[in-house]
Specification:
five-stranded parallel β-sheet; binds 2-oxoglutaric acid; 2 domains; Ald_DH_CS_GLU; Aldehyde Dehydrogenase, Chain A, domain 1; binds NADPH dihydro-nicotinamide-adenine-dinucleotide phosphate; about 40% helix; 15 helices; 22 strands; alpha/beta
C-alpha cells in the first residue's frame, strides 16, 4: 500500500540537552487518524538504558536548577511561551494531523499551553510559605517549600499540548527537573513542545523526553529509584498500576484518570443553552476528554422538547478531517479507540437501550482510511447498562429520564467516577443542592462539563483521581514538599 508520507523525520529523545538516538535503533510511525496512510513522523521505541540516561541527566541538572531564584526560572518559562506562540500554527497543525481534533480546537489548546507557561512563570515570584507563631517567643517559625527532585511525567494523547505543559511548567517553576514520556500516539507533537523549551534555553538536563512503550518507559519511570514524583493522566488501569509502583518505593504520585460525567437538565432550564452545552461538552474532540459529558439526565416534563432540540442540533454536525475548514468533529484518535467506541455502541443495543442517532462507523469514500464515527445518542438508558457506567471516550450520549431533581442527583452520583458534572437550571435551590450534593471535583452551573481554567484547581473525586489537584496554585501541593523551619538565635 502506498503511504502518503507527509514527513519522514524521526523525532529523537531529548536527553541532557541533546537530541539522542535510542540504543534500540527501532522507530515507529505516528500516523494520522484521519488517514492511516499519512505518516506524521517517526518516533523511537526507546529502552530502559535511554530512560536511565535521562534520569541521570535530570538528577544532576536539578541540583543547580533548584538553586536559581524563582524569577530566573520564570524567565525561561516566559521565553518558552513566546516561542510556542510563534510556532502556534505549526504545533497545532501537527496536533490535528497526529490525533485528529479539529484545527481550531488544536490552535485554542496551543494558545492555552502558552498561557499556562506564563501563569507558572509568575509563580516564581509568589509566596511559598507561612510564618507560624511559635510557643517560644524568642524563635522564628515558618514554612518553606522544596522541590521533589526529578519528576516523571506520563501523558495521554487527548490534550497533546495542554497536559504535558500543565504538568511540566509547575514542576519546573518549583525547582524540579523533568523526564516526560508522552503518549506514543502524540509523541511528535510533544517533541515540538520540547523544541520550544529547548529554544527558550533551559539548562541541559532540566527537561528530558524519552519516547517508547508505556509498559517499558512509563513503567520504568514509575519504578525508577531516582524519580521522586510521578504525575500521570490516562486510563484507570494504568494509573492504578503507576500509583502502586510509586507507593511501593515511597515516591509521590498524582493520577488523573477517567470520568462518566453527567449533565442534569432541569424543567426550568434554558433548553437551547443546555442543548448547546451537551453537544459541545459531549462531542467536541470526538468525546475524548476526561471531562466530556456522557450521561444526560433530563426531567421528564421537558424530556421530549430537549431531545428534539438535541437531535436537530446533531444533524448540523460535520464529521471529517480536522484539517479541513467547516469540519466540527474529527476522527477517533486511533483504531483502538474507534473499536472501543464501536463495542460500546453494540453493548448499548444488546443491553436494550434505543439508538436514536448515529451509531455507525463512517466508511464512505473520503472516510475509508480514517477512524471516523457518527455522533451517537441512546435513550431508554438504565443505570446498570455499560454505556451508563463505563468511560467510553467517544462521541456517545446516553439520555436518562427522571421525575425530580432529587432523583437526578441520586442518578448523577451513581457512578464510580466523580470528575466533572453540570446542571442546567434557573432555580437557585436546585443550584445549591447540586453544589452541595454532587460528588465531583468540578461542578458547573449552566455551563458544559468539559473545559477547565488553567488558574483553578482541577481533579476529581472517587475513582477519577488520586484525590490530588492539578493546575492553578493547587499544583504546588504535588510538586513541592513543605519544610517547617524553626530558628532560634
Ligand atoms: N483521563 C484522561 O484524560 C484519559 C483517559 N484515557 C482513557 O484510557 C483509555 C485508553 O487510552 P490509552 O491511550 O490506552 O491510555 P493509557 O492509560 O494506556 O495511556 C496513557 C499514558 O500512559 C502510558 N502507559 C501505558 N501503559 C503504561 C504502563 N504499563 N506503565 C506506565 N505508563 C503506561 C501511555 O503510553 P503509550 O502511549 O506508549 O501506551 C500513555 O503515555 C481511553 O479509552 C480512555 O478511557 C485515555 C487518555 C486520556
Ligand atoms: O476539559 C478539559 O479542558 C480538560 C480535560 C482533561 O484534562 C482530559 O481530558 O484529560
Amino acid at each position: 500500500m502506498e503511504h502518503t508520507v507527509s514527513e519522514n523525520r524521526t523525532y529523537l529523545n531529548y536527553i541532557n540537552g541533546q537530541w539522542s538516538v535510542s540504543s534500540t535503533g527501532e522507530v515507529e510511525a505516528s500516523i494520522s487518524p484521519a488517514n492511516k496512510h499519512e505518516i506524521v513522523g517517526y518516533i523511537q521505541k526507546s529502552s530502559l538504558d535511554d530512560l536511565n540516561a535521562a534520569v541521570a541527566g535530570a538528577k544532576q541538572a536539578q541540583k543547580q536548577w533548584r538553586k536559581l531564584a524563582g524569577s530566573v526560572r520564570g524567565d525561561y518559562l516566559y521565553k518558552a511561551a513566546a516561542v510556542l506562540e510563534r510556532r502556534l500554527d505549526e504545533v497545532a497543525e501537527t496536533m490535528t494531523r497526529e490525533m485528529g481534533k479539529t484545527l481550531p480546537e488544536a490552535k485554542g489548546e496551543t494558545a492555552r499551553g502558552a498561557a499556562i507557561l506564563r501563569y507558572y512563570a509568575g509563580e516564581g515570584l509568589r509566596a511559598v510559605g507561612d510564618v507560624i507563631p511559635s510557643t517560644d517567643s524568642g524563635a522564628l517559625m515558618f514554612t518553606t517549600r522544596v522541590p521533589l527532585g526529578v519528576v516523571g511525567v506520563i501523558t495521554p494523547w487527548n490534550f497533546p499540548v495542554a497536559i504535558p505543559i500543565w504538568k511540566m511548567a509547575p514542576a519546573l517553576i518549583y525547582g524540579n527537573a523533568v523526564v516526560i514520556k508522552p503518549a506514543t500516539e502524540t509523541a511528535v507533537t510533544c517533541a515540538k513542545i520540547i523544541e520550544c523549551l529547548e529554544e527558550a534555553g533551559f539548562p541541559a538536563g532540566v527537561i528530558n523526553m524519552v519516547t517508547g512503550a508505556g509498559s517499558v518507559i512509563g513503567q520504568g519511570l514509575a519504578d525508577h529509584p531516582d524519580v521522586s514524583g510521578i504525575t500521570f493522566t490516562g486510563s484507570n488501569g494504568v494509573g492504578k498500576r503507576i500509583g502502586q509502583a510509586a507507593l511501593a518505593r515511597g515516591a509521590k504520585y498524582q493520577l488523573e484518570m477517567g470520568g462518566k460525567n453527567p449533565v442534569i437538565v432541569a424543567s426550568d432550564a434554558d433548553l437551547d443553552l443546555a442543548v448547546e452545552a451537551t453537544v459541545s461538552g459531549g462531542l467536541r474532540s470526538t468525546g475524548q476528554k476526561c471531562t466530556a459529558t456522557s450521561r444526560v439526565i433530563v426531567q421528564s416534563d421537558i424530556y421530549e422538547a430537549f431531545k428534539d432540540k438535541l437531535l436537530q442540533k446533531l444533524k448540523g454536525i460535520t464529521v471529517g478531517d480536522g484539517m479541513k475548514e467547516g469540519i466540527w468533529m474529527g476522527p477517533c484518535a486511533n483504531e483502538n479507540q474507534l473499536q472501543t467506541v464501536v463495542t460500546y455502541i453494540e453493548k448499548g443495543k444488546e443491553e436494550g437501550a434505543s439508538l436514536i442517532f448515529g451509531g455507525e462507523r463512517l466508511q464512505a469514500p473520503g472516510y475509508e482510511n480514517g477512524f471516523f464515527i457518527e455522533p451517537t445518542v441512546f435513550e431508554h438508558v438504565t443505570k446498570d447498562m455499560a454505556i451508563a457506567r463505563e468511560e467510553i471516550f467517544g462521541p456517545v450520549l446516553a439520555l436518562m429520564k427522571v421525575d425530580s431533581i432529587e432523583e437526578a442527583l441520586t442518578l448523577a452520583n451513581d457512578a464510580e467516577f466523580g470528575l466533572s458534572a453540570s446542571i442546567f437550571t434557573t432555580n437557585i435551590g436546585h443550584m445549591l443542592s447540586f453544589i452541595n450534593e454532587m460528588d465531583a471535583g468540578l461542578v458547573r452551573i449552566n455551563a458544559e462539563s468539559a473545559g477547565v481554567e488553567l488558574q483553578a484547581p482541577f481533579g476529581g473525586m472517587k475513582q477519577s483521581s488520586s484525590h490530588s489537584r492539578e493546575q492553578g496554585r493547587a499544583a504546588i501541593e504535588f510538586f513541592t514538599s513543605i519544610k517547617t523551619v524553626f530558628v532560634k538565635p
